[in-house]
Design brief:
The structure is a single chain. This protein is of the alpha+beta class. The protein has a single domain, classed as Pnp Oxidase, Chain A (Roll), CATH 2.30.110.10. It contains 6 helices and 14 strands.
Length: 214
């Protein structure tokens, strides 16, 4: 099966992408507009961009009419936001925040999340999460579509403060099992970490020796 993305509709390409690039970690993002209304929304186009300084990115698809999503607009206006890791305990409430609430309605209040003050940004954190990353905007890149009507906004931010549940943290590492992260699959399907295995990286000299032994 060979498929030329230029020969099919946008939605068809989207289905192929989300069915191929998986599992995808979920960034649950709080942002705040200029009136102080806190917005919360999940994004599964989410990844690490740098570790020095620590930087992460989320991709916010544009709404119909080429309108930026509330999260992208709020971040562009204030330059601050918080990313939370989605886990088995909060995923159902997080999913509820994807409802198309009006811009002046706080998803946080609507679904029953509690807020905590952040330390370095004005945007508050969600109490019912085990990992929170306070972020400051580095850059927003319009992507796809046309010059005047992009398809998406890639938001790149620097992590200026980590908040990690004490039960997860040991010797600089995070206990994956205790975190119980949840990722997105295709359609409306979610998934947890299942069977895991380790494959240590080899030095080239070790690889050469193994080839000789075979």
């Amino acid at each position: 099966m060979n498929i030329d993305p230029k020969q099919q509709e946008k939605l068809a390409n989207y289905k192929l992408l989300i069915g191929s690039v998986l599992p995808r970690p979920i960034a649950f993002v709080t942002s705040m507009n200029r009136r102080g209304v806190v917005n919360a929304a999940p994004f599964s186009f989410f990844t690490v961009m740098s570790d020095d300084p620590p930087m992460v990115s989320i991709t916010c698809m544009r709404k119909p009419g080429n309108l930026p999503k509330d999260t992208a607009r709020n971040i562009a206006e204030t330059g601050e936001y918080v990313i939370h890791v989605v886990d088995g305990e909060n995923v159902r409430q997080v999913n509820q925040t994807s409802t198309d609430f009006p811009p002046d309605v706080s998803e946080v209040e609507a679904v029953g999340f509690d807020l905590l003050p952040s330390e370095k940004v004005r945007v508050p954190r969600i109490a019912q999460t085990k990992i929170q990353m306070e972020c400051r905007l580095h850059q927003i890149l319009p992507m796809g579509g046309t010059v005047g009507a992009p398809n998406a906004d890639v938001v790149i931010g620097e992590v200026v403060m980590f908040h990690i549940d004490d039960a997860l943290y040991e010797a600089g590492r995070i206990d994956t099992a205790r975190l119980d992260p949840v990722g997105r699959l295709a359609g409306v399907t979610y998934g947890k970490v299942g069977e895991t295995f380790s494959l240590p990286r080899q030095k080239y000299a070790e690889w050469v020796e193994q080839k000789k032994e075979r």
